Amino acid sequence: GAVVSQHPSRVICKSGTSVKIECRSLDFQATTMFWYRQFPKKSLMLMATSNEGSKATYEQGVEKDKFLINHASLTLSTLTVTSAHPEDSSFYICRSEGSMGEQFFGPGTRLTVL
Amino acid sequence: AQKVTQAQTEISVVEKEDVTLDCVYETRDTTYYLFWYKQPPSGELVFLIRRNSFDEQNEISGRYSWNFQKSTSSFNFTITASQVVDSAVYFCALSSGGAGGTSYGKLTFGQGTILTVHP
Q: How many CB pairs under 8 A join A and B?
């Protein structure tokens, strides 16, 4: 079956650096990608939605200049956390959705900013 | 606006007990979808079930069963004869579908219920 991978699975970085998280759909074409963040013991909060080849739509309160989303192809979407700070430490999860409604979550990326 | 409420923050049971996880939702849409996901300690979400708003039939899958009641806007999840491997965070989620009618679109998640099953 289809698999969605995320890379890296874990990343530790210094404050002020940028971190890129990749979400790849391995067996199907992801027409829509959803990015979520999850703080410890909290729910998943939607950050943004992107359609292949279009600009992402961000949820209220999410800084689009800080969380850059690129969905240039049907198999790859990236989330870049720019100038990361400790408060950006979180678990980031992508969800891929195909044109027929098939959907798969990525395994998540745990970001720790020192 | 859509909302999902999982009032039980944490539940602790002993193995072989039955346990029900509650989910109450709010939406103004007539067509919507309800989901349950399991999130084990690894973090990866595991899909358990999807229901659409026009299908109120209860469903059973092995030790899992779901009770969908539109009259009370609830979609409760019961695990029968719980096992230690059932220990995880369980999320209920709601969507009204995406553009074009063939996708599920945005998912609104509940706060999650931490289930701990003791041996």
A: 51
